[in-house]
Each structure stands twice: as C-alpha cells, then as structure tokens.
Amino acid sequence: MIAREEIANVLKGYNKKEIRIATICSHTALQIFHGARQEGIKTIGICLKDHKKIYDAFPYGRPDEYILVDSYSELPEDELIKKNAIAIPHGSFVEYYGKKNIESTRLPMFGNRMSLTWEGSRDKLYEWMKDSGLKVPKVFTPETIDRPCIVKTSGAKGGHGYMIVSSPEEFKKKIKTTDYHIQEYISGVRVYPHFFFSPLSKTGYTMKRGSLEMMSIDRRIESTIHESYRSTIAGIELKPSFTVMGNEGLVIRESLIKKVLEAGEGVIESSYRLFGGLTGPFCVEMICTDELEFYTFEISARIVAGTNLYPTGSPYTSYSYNEPTSTGRRIAIEIKNAAKADRLGEVIY
Ligand code: ATP
User: Fold this and answer.
1) So what's the pLDDT on residue 328?
2) How far apart (Å, rounded) are the C-alpha atoms in residues 323 and 337?
3) What domains can be seen in the chain, in order of their start residue?
4) What pLDDT sits at residue 240?
5) Which of 298, 299, 307 for a ligand 1 pocket mutation test, highest count of atoms within 8 Å of Cβ?
6) Rounded to whole angstroms, how far apart are CA atoms 244 and 27?
7) d(CA 312, CA 290)
C-alpha cells in the first residue's frame, strides 16, 4: 500500500485553485460531475471512446473534459496528476482498476483507500462489522447449515449467482465452486442508508471527531426475487436470484433513524480503531426484521449507486442543507472546504 505521506507529497504539488474531480464515466459519474459543477469545480471523465456520446447526452452531468480510452486496463495516473485531479473511487472505478492498482497508485483519491481494502475482503469486512457493534447474519460451513442460508459465491457481482440452500445435502447438490461464503438468510426489508462522514464538520450528528450525515436511503431492485410474487401468482415455480438491476427510494419510520445513525457511527468509530478512519461517502447494507432489528450484511466504503436517485437531494438532505444536495455535490463541498482549511490530507488518500 502506498504511504499516506507519498500522496500528501503529490497533493503538495497541486495548484489548489485548479483542483479537478475525476472518475470513470460509469456508476455514479453523472451525479459526481453534476455535483462538482454546482460547486464550480471542473471535472475529468475517463471514458471509453464509444461511451462519450452517452455522457454528452446530459449537458449538466457530463464531465468538462474527457480522457478517452480503449479500455480501463490502465489508470492514466500521470496525466491526471498533471491536471491536479482528485479521483472519486466509485463502484466501477474500484471494479475496473482493481485492488492492486488502487493500493499502489500515486493518484490522490477521495476518502481513505484503506477502507476499500477492508470492504474487499470477507474476513476483514466481518471483523469490521462486528467491531462496529452491528448485528450480523450468522456464518455457516456447508456441514453446519441448519436453516435457510444464502450462498455468496466469489466473483458473483451485484448478487448475480447467489443461491439459497437449507441443508448440507442441498448445498452439495447446488454449489459446485470451492470459493463461497454461507450466511444465514435474514427475512425482512432491505435498507441501504447512504452516509457521509466528514472529519472537518462540527455541525449535525457530531461524534468523537467530525460529524455523520445521513444523505438518503434506497432499496435495490433485484431480479428475480423482487417481483417473485408475480411468478407465484402466475403458477410458475421460481428459483430466486439476486441480480441487482436498479434502485428505488425509501424513507424509514422516523423512530428508526436513531438505530440507523448509530449503525453509521459504529462503522466510523471502528474504522478509526482498525485502519485510520473512513471518510466521505459509505453505505451500511442492512435488513430490518419484523422485530425492527437491523442486521448488516455488508459495508460499501464508497459512494453507492443508490445515491443516483437523489441528484437534487433527498428528504433527509433537505433537513441538513435546506438546498438540493446530492452525495456527489457533498463530495465537492468537502474538497472545497478541505482545500480552504489546508486539510486535504485528512480527506484524501
Ligand atoms: P454489491 O457488491 O453490489 O453490494 P454483492 O455481490 O456484494 O453486491 P451483497 O450485497 O452481499 O452482494 O448481496 C446481494 C443481495 O443479496 C442483497 O442486496 C440482498 O438482497 C441479498 N442478501 C445478501 N445477504 C443476505 C442475507 N444475509 N439475507 C438475505 N438476503 C441477503
């Protein structure tokens, strides 16, 4: 892992008045560029040649400048550093450039890149979730399965290929790979709250250091499980699957906000104990049972695609900012505030 000091040195060479926000044209790029534009920060989109047209279709969401590439195999780090760029590692950025590139690049990235390493390893993720004080689904080995479990196979992206099994025999019959993670299947309503943690801010939900902002909430729409009742009514026997195909908005009972904020707080406090702290956007992926208990099955330590529902803000951001504020815009605000206070090193690694 490249040292924090090396990134701080790269940042020292930046012209603070010319800072740009850069990311891959995918995932949450329109929202990130739109938010930066609202804050007067110029943007760079790393874009596949034949995708430029798609981004040009949205004049307020397109980047100010493109770096056109044939593939995402190599990060144009020198060119980006020359342009005073700060990269926003969204889901596709992390996926395409991969752990190795992200851990070693000299390109300054928004947030703490260590958090991406922690979310990317199942063992580390479980350690983090438990240390955060979160309730997590019970983990099983194939032999100990005694209830409905979800089997997460390695390399399955966005839930694709996950399976439900209820016994060791069923596991043996259905699962043919050797790399898997078996979790108790939690019945309830899935809730994906989007947070932003700022170590610079002193208002709102204050914590030991900085403050936590609840930006918005979504629920993922997954095929085929999401509308499985239709198949059931139609008399079709369905094999449930969990391939993410979209997102829909959600607000929760106001009395549940306390539990959700405390979950976010736990994740941040633990991140400081374990790896120097998560800063910026993140999501705690939970299921709320009929006892109104929240089980967390994953932390996404970066901006998540569900925030795309709210380019002009969510019900929750209305109460925090009183003007349209997306997570993309909040990122730009943090970079501006940190540059002004000469504290970029605290929010960029
Ligand atoms: P991503 O990386 O995009 O978050 P993923 O491939 O890591 O996706 P998960 O987020 O772990 O997959 O799970 C995908 C879906 O499977 C969830 O959105 C949820 O619907 C379902 N799921 C995951 N874990 C559980 C669980 N323990 N109980 C019930 N459903 C679950």
Assistant:
1) 98
2) 18
3) 4-135+187-347 (3.30.470.20), 139-184 (3.30.1490.20)
4) 85
5) 298
6) 13
7) 32
In the chain, which residues have pLDDT < 50? none
Whether the CB-CB separation of 27 and 305 falls below 8 Å is answered with: yes
How far is the centre of ligand 1, averaged over its atoms, from the C-alpha of 106 (Å)? Answer: 32
Q: For 286, how many CA atoms within 13 A lie in the half-sphere containing its CB?
A: 26
Q: Whose CA is nearest to atom 2 of ligand 1?
A: 158
pLDDT for the residue 73: 85
What is the model's pLDDT at position 71? Answer: 95
pLDDT for 198 equals: 98
- Tell me the H-state helices in 156-220: 168-174
What is the pLDDT at residue 237?
Answer: 87
Q: What separation in angstroms does the CA of 303 have from each of 194, 216, 226, 262, 308?
A: 8, 12, 23, 19, 10
Amino acid at 146: D
Pocket of ligand 1 (CB under 6 A): 137, 150, 152, 156-159, 162, 183, 185-186, 190, 220, 222, 242, 244, 285, 287, 297-298, 300
Determine how β-strand 163-165 pairs with β-strand 189-198: unpaired
Spell out the residues 6+ positions from residue 112 whose beta carbon is closer than 8 angstroms to its own: 271, 275, 276, 277, 278, 279, 280, 349
Written as six digits, the tokens of 240 are 């449930």
Q: Are 325 and 314 in contact (CB under 8 A)?
A: no
